[in-house]
Write a structure and sequence with these properties.
Distance between the termini of chain C: 40 Å
Helix content of chain C: under 10%
Shape of chain B: elongated
Radius of gyration of chain B: 21 Å
Number of domains of chain B: 1
Order of helices and strands of chain C: HEEEEEEEEEEEEEEEE
CATH topology of chain B: Ribosomal Protein S5, domain 2
Structural class of chain B: alpha+beta
Shape of chain C: elongated
Strand content of chain C: over 45%
Number of helices of chain C: 1
Largest sheet of chain C: 5 strands, mixed, barrel
Radius of gyration of chain C: 22 Å
CATH architecture of the largest domain in chain C: Beta Barrel
Largest sheet of chain B: 6 strands, mixed
CATH superfamily of the largest domain in chain C: Nucleic acid-binding proteins
CATH topology of the largest domain in chain C: OB fold (Dihydrolipoamide Acetyltransferase, E2P)
Number of strands of chain B: 12
Number of helices of chain B: 6
CATH superfamily of chain B: GHMP Kinase, N-terminal domain
Order of helices and strands of chain B: HHEEEEHEEHEEEEHEEH
Oligomer: heterotrimer
Structural class of chain C: mainly beta
CATH architecture of chain B: 2-Layer Sandwich
Number of domains of chain C: 2
CATH class of chain B: Alpha Beta
CATH class of the largest domain in chain C: Mainly Beta
Chain lengths: ~290, ~270, ~190
């Protein structure tokens, strides 16, 4: 463990404490109440706070907050490619890295970059690259670094990462075709499947059949508690002005109709998010004028 | 300097001759960012910003922002200290906060700051590690104190130490998920003392001392001196890095200035 | 606040290609012009032609060398074939991260190219004004100083004094009055 020698070392292993709940404690379930935050309707997003320009050393930066979900993003570049042996390229490259702070989740995360972070980084690069005019940055590199300070729901975290990164790119003055807004949705069954045990092994269609006896509700921008009950989820990255999708990440099972419905919902929500992004960027102009 | 023939914009001149650019300011008694030589940047402290952490705080000193979160976990105690818990402070200087840092394992600077803070916390016995004992020889609490630098603009040591102290200060170990607060294993961290620091940059050639250097001042300075004091004004640590020489008189002045500064910082930390 | 009325963000539709020419900070896509940066929309009238639509950036992108741009750089290494430099300033905008460039021996001056010796033209540490002639290879931009106003603008002598140009290929140390050879830039 070479990297651990470079940090102040703790014990070799440690475990998260088990949380004891009192007997009368009733956690939220989708069967009792509509949403975890009872003020929200299924299609409601959490309020978004978005601000540019917090990292003075970066070319562009942004901070996003969806209640408990908090992410910061710094954009560096276009700057020369440091890695040797890549050869000449008349297009620029976009490099995206996301890191969860060790204290960002319920369970402590490791200090090293794990597989999930690597996968997410790749998803973000893929979703943002179509929006950036890389042909204008020959043999240069644009680096996007995102730190998740607190995560309240995986899907919303990915969606927020798209949003915050594209605002930071625009803030860095990097030429783009459009902004990219990210939105997530979860499919949550709102009543307990009555035949969950009996039908699971009966028919060949059981894998879809058992779940589809209950049509799931689409919860937009689900938080962590709601994600615990989800059958599946979708994250959509979308360019609102050009009306184009740059990335879709669908996991879990759902019927085609539910998926197309959730995509529609996400597109609608992305347009709302776009208004917030628009506002944050125009605000950065005002700041300098005053 | 013989520069009559070429004219530059100030930003170009600063890039080409940073030290000369800077010297022209300091000889007039001001700094490029408008501060006086002995003034610190505006500082804010926010408590409890991260709900997934057992304790957390965000500290901003000028353009430097540090978010610190405390995570409590359970581990076996060391054989030679069966009744003592662990306190593991680390400072993360991610590539996000400045172009100075590259992805990968912690840079030398990050290691140095982490180690310096670890030493201060350990040597000045900020936390009685016996408080972290659950059952002797079997289980103790581990407090992972991670300070993430969100934006880097110099003087990471002051910002990180302040963030760590503020986060520990509101740290609560909660084993009960409900409202039952009388659980015997849940408790609030008790700090024996709260060390805070003030950092100064030393310029050898002009014998200038600058309080709270920002990143450009840091890179052209010959050395830095950090003075850590607790609330009673007792020294908890003096760290000097770089090859600059420093006379006794300068050191005394710095300690005096640090006393004033840490008092002010304590005031900011204690207001909510 | 009139200017804020014209403030645009990337992706915002600005007009039809039949009405305007696409200028800096804009692009055309399927008959329409869109903004590609955050900034203020400006329309420049062209006589007889379509007016050009540009978006003046609000947050300037970090400087990048472009062909024909005048750059200021610092010499880091020399060898008989070229001088390697770090490009520090493009035009009047400092780069946040230095770009690498090289001045090949045939690009040092315009005449008598075969007589040029790199070590009689540049020394490590010199500040040089040069022009970008090509994007170069994977690593370095190719620069040229083959013009009167291009060449060394600052230098430090062997003795540590600063150098003053006395001709287009000689500089004098302010301390020792010793003469050193350089490809000097003509002061402007």
């Amino acid at each position: 463990m070479a990297a651990d020698r470079k940090r102040v070392a703790g014990p070799e292993t440690s475990v998260a404490p088990l949380v004891e709940y009192p007997i009368d404690h009733q956690p939220w379930t989708p069967f009792t109440e509509k949403r975890h935050n009872s003020h929200r309707q299924p299609e409601d997003l959490r309020p978004i706070y978005l601000k540019t320009g917090l990292i003075s050393e970066a070319n562009g930066s942004a901070y996003i907050e969806l209640e408990k979900t908090k992410l910061t993003c710094g954009v560096y570049g276009p700057r020369p490619i440091k890695r040797a042996g890549q050869g000449f390229s008349d297009r620029g490259t976009l490099n995206c890295e996301i890191k969860f702070a060790t204290f960002s989740c319920v369970k402590r995360r490791g200090t090293m970059r794990d597989a999930q972070e690597k996968e997410l980084s790749q998803i973000l690069s893929q979703g943002l690259t179509p929006a950036v005019r890389l042909e204008l940055f020959p043999k240069s590199n644009v680096d996007i670094y995102i730190t998740v300070l607190e995560s309240d729901g995986w899907g919303s975290c990915v969606a927020a990462a798209f949003t915050v990164a594209s605002v930071a790119l625009a803030h860095a003055g990097i030429e783009m075709l459009d902004l990219v807004a990210g939105c997530s949705a979860s499919y949550v069954p709102t009543s307990i499947p009555s035949n969950s045990n009996s039908s699971s092994s009966s028919t060949t269609e059981s894998s879809t059949g058992a779940g589809s006896t209950v049509t799931p509700q689409i919860f937009m921008d689900a938080d962590l508690e709601e994600e615990k009950y989800q059958q599946g989820s979708i994250v959509l990255a979308y360019m609102p002005s050009l009306n184009q999708t740059t990335h879709v990440l669908q996991t879990g099972k759902a019927e085609g109709s539910i998926i197309s419905q959730s995509v529609e919902h996400c597109v609608e929500a992305c347009n709302k998010i776009f208004a917030v992004m628009n506002h944050a960027l125009l605000e950065s102009i005002d700041q300098k004028k005053l | 300097m013989a520069t009559p023939a070429f004219t530059f914009t100030p930003s170009t001149f600063q890039k080409l001759h940073p030290a000369e650019f800077f010297r022209r300011f300091t000889t007039e008694g001001v700094r490029p960012d408008g501060r006086l030589l002995d003034s610190f940047r505006p500082t804010t402290v926010h408590h409890g910003v991260i709900s997934t952490a057992n304790g957390s705080a965000m500290v901003r000193i000028g353009g430097t922002t540090v978010v610190c979160g405390v995570k409590a976990e359970v581990a076996e105690p060391r054989l030679d200290a069966p009744d003592q818990g662990y306190l593991v402070p680390n400072v993360e200087l991610s590539p996000m906060c400045s172009s100075k840092f590259r992805p990968g394992p912690p840079s030398e600077q990050a290691q140095a700051v982490s180690e310096a803070i670890n030493r201060v916390l350990k040597e000045s016995k900020v936390l009685d590690l016996k408080d972290l004992c659950i059952e002797e020889g079997k289980a103790v609490w581990v407090l992972y104190v991670d300070a993430v630098c969100v934006a880097y603009d110099g003087n990471i040591y002051d910002a990180a130490l302040a963030a760590i102290m503020a986060a520990l200060n509101n740290g609560t170990i909660k084993v009960s998920g409900g409202t039952a607060a009388n659980d015997e294993n849940s408790f609030k961290l008790k700090l024996a003392r709260t060390p805070l620091s003030a950092t100064f940059a030393i310029f050898d050639t002009t014998l200038t001392i600058l309080a709270d250097p920002n990143v450009t001042e840091e890179t052209i300075s010959d050395g830095q001196i950090s003075i850590t004091l607790d609330e009673t004004g007792l020294l908890c640590g003096v760290t000097k890095i770089g090859a600059a020489s420093c006379s006794q008189r300068v050191l005394k002045d710095c300690v005096q200035s640090a006393k004033k500064r840490t008092l002010q910082l304590r005031g900011i930390m204690n207001q909510l | 606040m009139a200017s804020v009325q014209n403030a645009v963000v990337p992706g915002q539709r600005l007009g039809h290609v039949q009405e305007y020419n696409a200028g800096a900070g804009t692009y055309s896509h399927q008959d329409f012009l869109y903004a590609s940066v955050v900034g203020i929309k400006k329309i420049i009238e062209n006589q007889g032609e379509l007016p050009t639509l540009t978006v003046q950036r609000e947050n300037s992108q970090s400087a990048m060398p472009e062909i024909d741009a005048i750059v200021t750089c610092k010499v880091v290494r020399v060898n008989p074939r070229f001088a390697a430099v770090n490009i520090m300033v493009v035009g009047e905008t400092p780069c946040k991260d230095d770009f690498q460039g090289i001045i090949r021996v045939q690009d040092v001056r315009a005449t008598e190219k075969d007589k040029v010796k790199i070590y009689n033209s540049f020394r490590p540490g010199d500040i040089v004004r040069a022009q970008v002639i090509s994007l170069g290879d994977a690593r370095s931009y190719y620069l040229s100083t083959a013009s009167n106003e291009l060449g060394v603008i600052f230098g430090t002598s062997v003795a540590g004094g600063s150098l003053i140009p006395i001709s287009w290929q000689e500089m004098q140390c302010t301390k020792t009055k010793a003469i050193e050879l350089r490809k000097c830039a003509k002061p402007m």
